[in-house]
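Practice problem 4.
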């Protein structure tokens, strides 16, 4: 049997490593926006990369590598959260306390940490990582209108948390 052309061929190990290096920081920020804990974030990224490498043959088109990898990462983050469900209420309280006390984070970042999980993920993927609404829709498995609503509600809540710094004139 002849080998497939490049479009149907599985990504090589070197290509995988190169692609991962290009998105490493984005993966970390995305996981941190969900888990709000650096230790869990590192674990989630590491597990997601391992799962992605093991399941590399399931990637149909290399151009979707980033969104495919982020989807794996988010699933890993949610798995970690489910596993720690009993501890989560205490961790949320501590994370909010840390967000209010952390001098190293900006006021905006602290406010983002206070958003509900779905809104934090949408804000992080859209504004920090630069994914389009359509890509976020594919990654999260939700409709585009849901992503837009989450972004709208997040912006509204951030305005409330931060205070509207400029007056709106009509």
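Answer key:
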């Amino acid at each position: 049997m002849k080998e497939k052309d490049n479009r149907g061929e599985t990504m090589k190990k070197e290509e995988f490593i190169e692609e991962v290096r290009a998105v490493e920081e984005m993966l970390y920020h995305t996981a941190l926006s969900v888990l709000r804990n650096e230790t869990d974030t590192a674990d989630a990224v590491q597990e997601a990369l391992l799962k992605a490498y093991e399941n590399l043959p399931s990637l149909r088109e290399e151009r979707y590598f980033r969104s495919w990898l982020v989807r794996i990462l988010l699933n890993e983050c949610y798995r970690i959260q489910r596993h720690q469900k009993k501890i989560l209420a205490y961790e949320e309280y501590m994370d909010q306390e840390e967000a209010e006390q952390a001098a190293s984070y900006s006021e905006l970042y602290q406010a983002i940490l206070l958003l509900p999980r779905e809104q934090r993920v949408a804000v992080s993927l859209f504004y920090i990582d630069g994914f389009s609404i359509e890509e976020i829709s594919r990654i999260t498995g939700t409709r585009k209108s849901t992503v837009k609503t989450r972004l709208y509600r997040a912006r509204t809540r951030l305005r409330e948390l931060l205070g509207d710094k400029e007056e709106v004139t009509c």
